[in-house]
Amino acid sequence: MKTKSILITAIVIITLIGLNSSVFIVQEKDQVIITQFGKPVGEAITTPGLHYKVPLIQDANYFEKRVMEWNGDPNQVPTKDKKFIFVDTYARWQITDPLQFFKRLTNERGAQSRIDDILDGDTRDFIANNDIEEAVRTSNRIPESSDTDIIGDSLEKINVGRDSIQNMILESANIQTKELGIRILDFRFKRINYVQEVQNQVYERMKSERFRIADKFRSEGQGEASRINGEKERELKKIQSLAFRDAEMIKGKADATAASIYADAYNTSNQSRSFYGFLKSMETFEKTFDEKTSIFISTDSELYKYLKTMD
C-alpha cells in the first residue's frame, strides 16, 4: 500500500513537471523560436499568450520584438583628404525575421557583434571616400554672422554632406543584414571630432582667419576715420570761410553806416566839416607817430598845416 502511494505521488509530480515544462508564456515584447534537439521547429511565435511545446525535448528561445540600440566604439578614421577624425556612432535595430535570425546569429549577443562588423566597416569605408568637410557639414548654407561675407567665402562647397553619408551607410548596412533577419532602423553620427593634430591645425586656421577679419575691419575703420576727419576739416574750413565772409560783410556795412552817419553829422556846415577833418587828422597822428617815428611830408599835405599850427 505504501509503495503504491509513493508511485502515485511520483507519477503526479512527473506529470506536473511535464505540464509545467510544456507550457510557456509569450509576452508583448517577445517572439519565440521552438527548437528540438537544437534545431528550429515550425515558424516563429509572435502572438502574445499561453503556448505549448513538447516537454524535455523542445525548448523555447526568446528574442526581443522591441527596437534595440547599438552604440559603436569611437574609432579613428582617415578621410579622403588624409585627415584623421574620431567618429562615434549609434544605431537602432530590430529583429524582423526571428527564424532567420536564430539560424544565422543564434542570439542577440551574436547580432551585436555582427552589427559591429557591418556598421564599423561601412562607416570607415564611406568616411574614407569623402573629404572631411563632407563628414562634418550637412549643407552649403551661408553662416549667419556679422562677418558673413568673409566667412562665407572661405567655406568650401560640399557635394554629399553628413546626412547623405549616414543614409548611404544605413542603406548599405541593411543590404548586408537582410539575410540575418534584422533591420537597421536608424543610423547616426553621435559625434565627430578632430584628432589632436588636426585640431591644432583647425585652431590655427581659425585664429589666422579671425586675425584677417580683424585686420580688414581695422583697415576699414581707419579708412572711415580718415574720411570722417577729412570731411570734418573741410566742413570746418567752409564754416570759417563763410563766417569770415559774413563778418567782413557786416563790418563793411557797419563802416559804411558809420561813415554815412559821420558824413551826415559833420556835413551840416563849414565849421563841422573842418572839425571832422581835424579829428581824422588827429586820429592819423595818433596811429602813425610815436617818439621814434620820423616822417617826410609835403607842404601841400593836409597834415602839414596842423603840424605848422602846433609849432
Automatic annotation (TrEMBL):
It is found in: Membrane. GO terms for cellular component: membrane. Keywords: Membrane, Transmembrane, Transmembrane helix. Pfam families: Band_7 (PF01145). Gene3D superfamilies: Band 7 domain. It is a single-pass membrane protein. Residues 21-206 form the Band domain. Its main location: membrane. Belongs to the band 7/mec-2 family. HflC subfamily. HflC and HflK could regulate a protease. NCBIfam families: hflC. This is Protein HflC.
